[in-house]
User: What shape does this take?
Amino acid sequence: MSTAGGARTIKIPLTDNDLPMPDTRPRLLSTPLLSLRDWIFPERCRLCAAPGAALCADCFGELPRLTATRCPICARPQADNSPCGACQRQAPGFAAVYTPFAYAAPLDGAIQAWKFGGRLDWTLALAEAWLSAWQQPPALPQALVPVPLHRKRLRERGFNQAALLARCWGRAWDIPVRLAARRQRDTAHQVGLRAEQRRHNLRDAFRIHGPLPEQVAIVDDVFTTGTTASVLAETLRAAGCRHVDVWVLARAL
Ligand SMILES: [Zn+2]
Ligand SMILES: [Zn+2]
Assistant: This one.
């Protein structure tokens, strides 16, 4: 919002710095003291409408988890903890993918409503579910780098979901968020492309601005083929980062 000339105009966010930022005080999965507002308009679970929290404990427990044994690099479920065939054939640019969740019902529907349905009220519920699901937190990087959206897509959607997650997670664990990656080209149409075509499509897609620490984690909402994360990780390493992890809300199976 700006008030230039006395008239209130709605500014369309064009950069990650203009993103709407929700209140990230930890309260959704804890038991808050009831304020008058909460008493009159109780928070309701986004999945089952039970009063009390944006995501109730039962629904939190139903979120699909990845198996305990998985590829140590891309988190693909594996019978043992050895690297999967894909990672053995071509090592990704990142060191490891961190997420407790599989991209499956009901989490997939929630992420789609959040991302494509403009349901920003899901931001905190999803970010805090991720934080709460770790029995042992992942190794903490020195900075979080959200996967950038191209300006055109950011204008269409109005927010970058990866940047919102990074802000919530960075605030919770005291890690700086660096909006250091920019998308130079609109490379959204990856569906249906083979792995090599996807990589080719993303060649030179990202540019890194400013110095970064040696250990960073890329943040994104869903890890699907991993091509985007791998190409961004390679770009970050070419820019001087030595260790690049990937933090995502959920991993597609
Ligand atoms: Zn519920
Ligand atoms: Zn793997």
